[in-house]
Fold Signal transducer and transcription activator-like.
Amino acid sequence: MGVYHLAAWTAADFKQRCLADRIRDLASLLYLCQDPNAEPMPKDQALQSYYTIPEPQLKMEPNADGYVVSDLKCHLPDR
């Protein structure tokens, strides 16, 4: 285990995918801490209301127009 510093995301990145969804994608990030004196909070509990599409709603089924909706994902390279 270790601490890694991620490169900063830009405004252009956030036009494609919001911060909450990017954090949700990072499986190795489990908790968020809003205050150094507070207990860490599970990331899904902290950010669930900010997610654009809840995970269970993403399906590989065509919509009414015949298209399957795609989603961008953020990931970290394997170490």
